[in-house]
Amino acid sequence: VQLQASGGGSVQAGGSLRLSCEVRGFHSSINGLDWYRQVPGNQREFVAAMSGGRRMTYADSVKGRFTISRANSENTVYLQMNNLRPEDTAVYYCTFLGMWGQGTQVTVSS
What we know:
Strand content: over 45%
Number of helices: 0
Number of strands: 11
Mean pLDDT: 93
Structural class: mainly beta
Largest sheet: 7 strands, mixed
Low-confidence stretches: none
Shape: globular
């Protein structure tokens, strides 16, 4: 199983980005995929999770702004990020079955 994260970039505060995490080599429903983020010098922190039955969980700091989702026929989980803030700047990682993607940089300027 391999994870490929993409979709990061640079936006101004208030802007939006959609991150994607493609799961390769796994041929069943994807449940239990999480998004984390990390700022250099800090610990990796939880952002959002999609659990069994498509139950979504979010960190308080992103509730109401970020949405985790998955299309039925795709092995890709998305993280839609709206109303971005400078404090959302970080490298975003997806994790599934104990494996981590390579991370994608999100930079939000004020």
